[in-house]
Amino acid sequence: MSWDTYKALTFNFPAVELSLDLSRLGLPEGYIDSQRGAFAKAFAAMDELEKGAIANPDEGRMVGHYWLRDADLAPNEELKTTISSSVEKIKAFAAKVHSGEVKGSNGTFTDVLVIGIGGSALGPQFIAHALGVPSEDKAAIHFFDNTDPEGMDLALNAIGDRLGSTLSLVISKSGGTAETRNGMLEAQKAYSDMGLDFAKHAVAITGVDSKLDKVAVSEGWLERFEMWDWVGGRTSVLCAVGLVAAALQGIDIQALLDGASAMDKVTRAKSIEENPAALLALAWFYATNGKGEKDMVILPYKDRLLLFSRYLQQLIMESLGKEFDLDGNVVNQGIAVYGNKGSTDQHAYVQQLREGVPNFFATFIEVLKDRHGPSIDVEPGITAGDYLQGFLLGTREALGETGRQSITITTPEVSEATVANLIALYERAVGFYATLTNINAYHQPGVEAGKKAAGAAIELAKGIVGALESSKGTAMDAPTIAEKLGKPESTELVYKIALHMAANAKAGISKIDAENWYDAKFLILA
Ligand SMILES: O=P(O)(O)OC[C@H]1O[C@](O)(CO)[C@@H](O)[C@@H]1O
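# 6-O-phosphono-beta-D-fructofuranose complex -> structure
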């Protein structure tokens, strides 16, 4: 890359100490100019959104995550007060927990168990991993982010005998998410097995009057923090969803809010070149032909940013992956996101990136500061951190040689400010990209289909137990059970569910193997 091309296509944003290098994207001459009209619309739409327009038309909702870090921007006094008092309430609660004024049955809280999924876990996980220092944190943080029983066992195992000084945060915007409900019930059981009262160790973060909120009220949980319908799950990390856990861990949440606010100010610029979120959205649009034709590979060369790609997966794919545009046309939009960290990835999938199917563009995230404190030389005059940067620069070069596109974001260090900068940068880039592609970034109708089908499988499971119980001692294969349930069309599901039940000896169900696996029979002994 020539120095002049690099300078011409690298954009620096001193206010947030960030630089964005688009020089390895192959942007044709005049491309930015050709997009000015489209971006004028995107800037205008973003202005309207920030003023409180119903930017999520399907759900008739405002989209207010930008107000969370600058309450004065909220469209009315009530919201301004709600937002600021929520932040104050979080800080005050964390202070009481740290001082021991609010404590568990076994004394000052040492651990925090976050129970949530999707946007109610990914943001808190990213922040905890990026900014936590185990030996200094005010609380160790653990997650139930799935309905996998063994995953929960592992988290409980890490907590060990400290459950009596563990604060559980149950986080669900809707308050009705099955995985989170299951996690809550499992946690409740773990506390009660140790003779502890869950309610005295539990905090709810949810919408007012949701199912979860009602449970928290009726059981007299320690505290409740409100979530609002104008904050989407995937953009909720800077409200109570992410801030309570972060504050308890000892992370400076005001610095997070200020970092996001600083990036928000920069990304309100009305000129593409002066706006890093606009440049990022433009880069995505160019690289994917505005149709998601290429995947986005996120490559932070920093262990602390490992979970950023997972966080972005939801932010970008749940926001942009849409069947219809705002006019009802079928568009099947989206950008697939994956990634891990460099240089670890160099020894995993970079081989394919360089030589295999050219269906991606990479985003390198470069962090200038290696560590707090000095580093030893691993070779004369060279540190491990020099190697890390060397691998970033080398991989980027190697990808360029085979015509693979990349973006590079450079930030000075990993801190509250820069982590929040990145979050705010990508939130706004997603918003701009949605306007460029004329889609609603703020709903997720597709998620419902899987939830409904899962519900049907659970109903079927109940039926299978009933069928085997009513014919105790009789072994039946899957087609017979399905027939008995009046659901021959669901034979495959019956087979899969019965296999799982037998593996877990559920309701005493066992399996009699046959030579052909599909002829296995299931029974409950008489
Ligand atoms: O916070 P809730 O309501 O439990 O939802 C969890 C996640 O489920 C989804 O609704 C769908 O995956 C996400 O948008 C959301 O972040």
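# post-check
The longest strand covers residues 360-367.
Residues 445-524 form a domain with the Arc Repressor Mutant, subunit A fold (CATH 1.10.10).
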